[in-house]
Amino acid sequence: MWRLGELPRVTLACAIAALAVLAPGCATTSPGTAARSTEGDALPAQLAERVVVVTLAPASADSPDRIPVELAGAHGLRHIGAFPLTSIGVQCLVFEVPANRAMDEVLRGLAADRRVESAQPNQVFRNLAAGAPDSYASFQYGARAIRAPQAHRWATGRRVTVAVIDTGIETEHPDLQGRVAKTANFVDGGAQSFAHDRHGTAVAGVIGARANNNAGIFGVAPESDLIGIKACWQSTADGLEARCSSWTLAKAIDFAVINGTRVINLSLGGPPDPLLTRLIAKAIERGTTVVAAAMDGADAPGFPASLPLVIGVVASDSHNDVRSDERNRATMLAAPGVEILTTAPPHAYAFLSGTSLAAAHVSGVVALLLQREPTMSPSQVRLVLFATAHPVTASGVPAIGLVDACAAVATVGGGDASACE
Hints:
Layout: E1 9-10, H1 12-17, E2 28-29, E3 51-56, H2 66-75, E4 78-85, E5 90-96, H3 103-111, E6 116-121, E7 124-127, E8 130-131, H4 141-145, H5 148-151, E9 161-166, E10 180-185, H6 198-208, E11 225-230, E12 232-234, E13 242-245, H7 246-258, E14 263-266, E15 268-269, H8 274-285, E16 289-293, E17 311-316, E18 332-336, E19 340-344, E20 348-353, H9 355-372, H10 378-388, E21 390-394, E22 397-402, H11 405-413
Parallel strand pairs: 9-11, 9-14, 10-11, 14-16, 16-17, 17-18, 18-22
Antiparallel strand pairs: 1-2, 3-5, 3-6, 4-5, 7-13, 7-15, 8-20, 12-13, 19-20, 21-22
Helix pairs in contact: 6-9, 7-8, 9-11, 10-11
C-alpha cells in the first residue's frame, strides 16, 4: 500500500483552479484546523494486542454466562468481550492473553477444548489510502476514465445499498447529505468522532456523492443508498491512517449481511483471517458482491482482496497505468486511485491516492449494474466486470483490465455500447 501522507484540504473552487498550481488567493484549510477527533492516542480494546477471538461449539453456546468464566479459568485468560454473529449463527467470546503466555500455546489449548469451535488472534487491518503528491491531477479524471457519466444515462445506483465498512463518514457534507441511509458504529468510543473521520468520508464520496446539486463532485453511483459502518479507528484526528481488527470487522460484516446490503466495500487489507473469510463467504452466498482494495509490495494482494469470489482492485493513474508491482495480478481489476478528488471533512475536498479509492470506484460500478439488473449474482457481476474491462498496458506489456462502467452497464441492460464512445 502507499505510505500515508497529508495534503491540505481545499475548497472545490480552489481545487479546480489548482489543477496545475494552487491558485493565489484560494483559501486552504491546514490539518490542524479540522474538528478534532476525540479518539485520542488510546486504542480501544478491540484493537489491543494479545487478544484472541473464540467461536463457541454449538453445545457451549447454550451456556453464555458460564462458558466465558470457565474458559478464562481453564486457559489462564481474561474475558473482555462477547458478541453474536447472526449471519453465520455463532457466538464469539474475546479474551486477553497475559504477557507471560505464548499466543501459539494459548491458541492450541483453545482449539483442543471441546467447548470451542475455533480460536484465532484478533488481527489488525489497515486502510489503503494516502495523501496525494504535491502536483494536482485533472479534476475528477477517475469517473471519466471508467466512463461513469455515460453509464448514468442508464443507471445511477438508485435503491442499491452499498455498505462502506471503514471509519466514520461526514454525513452532513454538502455532497453526502441524504446519501447515507443508515450508520452503525462498532468501535468503542468511535461514535463521537464518526462525522470527522477522513478515510470513510473519502471512500463514500467516490461511491455516492450527490450529482447535479451545484456543489462539489459526483459519485460513480450518485443515487445509491450508502450504509456507513464504522469498524476502523482513525489513528490521528487529521490523518488518513486507520486500524481495524478481526473483532470490529466481524461485527461490521455481520451487520451488513443481516441488513441485506447488496454491495460491501472493504477499502482495507491485512493478513488472512478465518472468521472474516466465513462471514464474507456468507455475504456472497446471500447475494452480496464484495469489493476489496489490494495491498502492494511484499503483502500483495493481501486479504480480503485475495479471496476467490471477492473483487480485488488495484489503482491506476490518469494515464491508465498501474504500479509495476501490481501489473501481473490477473485476478485483479484496475480502477483510478491516484490523485482522486473526493469529499473530506469538514465540508471540504481533497486529492487522495490509494487502492482504497480504486475499490470505491468499482463498488460504484457494481451498484450501477445491480440497478440495471437486480437479480445478478456476485459471480455474474464479477464476470461482467472482467469481460468488459479494457486492458491497460505498461511498458508495452499487457497488464490488467481497467473497469468500464458504461460497457458493463450496457452489456447487462441490452443498451447500445456504441453510446459509450
